[in-house]
């Protein structure tokens, strides 16, 4: 009789375990489906809807005592930033970064990028450095953070430090055109036109270059006095009016670089 009682207890425990396992699987599937729907809204540029769905997903995780899905937090921040809820986005990303979980490197990247987009170079630099201090960074993550750090340093006129960050990024990802183009820009902004050309040269053999890389090349061409070629590149992406506007801006920027370089050498 006693053995029969123990058997029933064991069977009951097994049933409870099976129920718990099934409930966990159902919750996980529900969360995955909700994530797909929210991501689809984001990809369709329905940022307000995406924000609501990501909020609901996170609230559901809390209500069911599930771990917070960090990818949902990351996408929530991106949805918020797209709606000019910039401080809310930065707060969400900072929380993710401080959790030091799997999405922390990406959180650091977006925190830095959003700060740069707002013209906050010092805040961007701090975010990228915080990301670089994370343990277990992959090569691509480290390279992307170093590139962001380099951009923030160039924005603060720290050209040598910026070039160092780009060079380290390029060592980790030697085929990444953006990192090489930014390294060339770091030399150009410091008045070293010939060195910028040498650094950029390997990219001229690429079959396809990102628009931003080609625009960096247009700036180099302007510095070399090749106005028509620069105008031709810019006209692929901009209207004639925008090309004229950007040519004037780039010419003014180059004049400032030359003036600063001349002042340093005198």
TrEMBL record:
Which positions make up the signal peptide?
1-23
> Which of UniProt's keywords are assigned here?
Signal, TPR repeat
Q: Which PROSITE patterns match?
A: PROKAR_LIPOPROTEIN, TPR
Which InterPro entries does the UniProt entry name for this protein? TPR-like_helical_dom_sf, TPR_rpt
Identify the stretches annotated as TPR repeats.
143-176
**Alphabetized SMART domains for the sequence:** TPR (SM00028)
At the top level of its lineage, which domain of life is listed?
Bacteria
Q: What is this protein called?
A: Pilus assembly protein TadD
Q: What is the lineage of its organism?
A: Bacteria, Pseudomonadati, Pseudomonadota, Gammaproteobacteria, Vibrionales
């Amino acid at each position: 009789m006693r053995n029969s009682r123990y058997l029933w207890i064991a069977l009951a425990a097994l049933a409870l375990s099976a129920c718990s396992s099934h409930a966990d699987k159902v919750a996980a599937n529900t969360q995955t489906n909700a994530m797909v729907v929210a991501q689809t809204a984001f990809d369709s540029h329905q940022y307000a809807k995406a924000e609501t769905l990501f909020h609901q997903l996170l609230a559901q995780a809390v209500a069911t005592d599930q771990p917070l899905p960090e990818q949902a937090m990351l996408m929530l921040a991106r949805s918020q930033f797209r709606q000019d809820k910039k401080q809310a986005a930065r707060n969400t990303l900072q929380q993710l970064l401080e959790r030091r979980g799997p999405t922390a490197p990406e959180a650091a990247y977006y925190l830095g990028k959003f700060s740069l987009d707002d013209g906050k170079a010092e805040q961007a630099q701090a975010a990228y450095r915080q990301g670089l201090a994370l343990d277990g960074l992959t090569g691509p993550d480290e390279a992307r953070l170093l590139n962001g750090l380099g951009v923030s340093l160039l924005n603060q006129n720290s050209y040598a430090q910026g070039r160092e960050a780009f060079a380290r990024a390029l060592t980790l990802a030697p085929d990444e055109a953006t990192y090489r183009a930014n390294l060339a820009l770091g030399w150009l902004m410091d008045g070293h036109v010939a060195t910028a050309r040498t650094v950029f040269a390997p990219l001229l053999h690429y079959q396809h270059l990102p628009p931003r890389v080609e625009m960096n090349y247009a700036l180099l061409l302007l510095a070399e006095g090749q106005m028509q070629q620069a105008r031709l590149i810019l006209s692929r992406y901009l209207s004639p009016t925008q090309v004229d506007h950007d040519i004037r801006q780039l010419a003014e920027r180059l004049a400032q670089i030359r003036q600063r370089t001349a002042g340093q050498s005198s």
